[in-house]
Design brief:
The protein is globular and about 50 Å long. The protein contains twelve helices and no strands. It starts with a helix and ends with a helix. The longest helix is centred in the C-terminal third of the chain and has 29 residues. By secondary structure, it is mainly α. It has one domain.
């Protein structure tokens, strides 16, 4: 691996780790940063898939005690079963829509201009929702009603549109149905584990034969960078949104979406 490719892998790993759990669209950021640094994606987007796994591993490490406790206590603890049930129910809508409309999403919606539009619209949505001063009466995932979890799952369907942001869709959906900010973020983190593991597993199975030994160092670099940066960002995010909310991310999305649109228009 050359020094240039090492720096590319390092930069994109950091971008993935920083943007995956913030409501700002990791897809949009990977597209524009990859273009700016001249990154040539590996076959089947293997690199992008693997660095997502690095970000997910960060969540598993940060919440390892809570995850272990939920699994251990599920047979005799109703709150642990509610936690698991809420995650499973919230997975269903996006799973069904993804299977039914997979070809349409890939062939039609994966457009730079769709990404730009959804970045801007999502930013406006964040600002509007934060200004609504919604009542938050759910302060723990273990107290999340199954009907509320299903509603959040329906909002997650929006994330199938590139640029919407999976974390953004689930967090905003949770806020709209009465979940407190920090709990909304945590639910989004936990929901990401099966979603991204499942999507990554499918992608890797489809492209396994395309992975070459020469890719190993680049993949390891990106994976490690995504893992470390995600560890830092997740801890910061929970503290930040508890005190300041999500409005700043809305403004960031609008500015970034406009800049990204200008970038693609100038490129032609």
């Amino acid at each position: 691996m050359t020094e240039h490719s090492f720096l590319q892998a390092l930069i994109l790993g950091i971008v993935e780790g920083v943007s995956e759990f913030l409501p700002i669209s990791s897809t949009g950021h990977l597209i524009v940063v990859g273009e700016l640094i001249g990154f040539s994606s590996m076959p089947g987007k293997v690199f992008e898939v693997v660095i997502q796994l690095g970000a997910i591993l960060a969540i598993c490490v940060l919440y390892r005690e809570r995850l272990f406790r939920v699994v251990r206590d599920a047979p005799h603890d109703p709150s642990a079963r509610i936690f698991i049930g809420a995650i499973l129910i919230a997975l269903v809508p996006a799973g069904l829509v993804g299977v039914l409309f997979h070809d349409f999403i890939i062939s039609v919606l994966f457009s730079p201009y769709v990404v730009c539009s959804t970045l801007i619209l999502g930013g406006i949505a964040i600002i509007v929702i934060e200004r609504m001063h919604l009542e938050a009466n759910i302060t723990a995932i273990e107290k999340l009603p199954m009907r509320t979890a299903l509603k959040i799952g329906l909002f997650q369907c929006l994330a199938l549109v590139p640029g919407v942001s999976r974390s953004g869709a689930t967090i905003l959906g949770a806020l709209l149905v009465g979940v407190e900010r920090k709990t909304a973020a945590e639910f989004s983190f936990f929901l990401a584990i099966p979603v991204m593991l499942g999507a990554s597993a499918i992608n890797l199975l489809e492209t396994w034969d395309l992975i070459q030994p020469s890719h190993a160092y680049m993949i390891a670099t990106g994976f490690t960078a995504a893992f470390i940066s995600a560890l830092l960002v997740v801890q910061w995010l929970l503290n930040f949104v508890s005190n300041h909310g999500y409005t700043i991310f809305g403004w960031y999305r609008i500015v970034f979406g406009c800049l990204l649109l200008g970038f693609f228009l100038l490129r032609g």
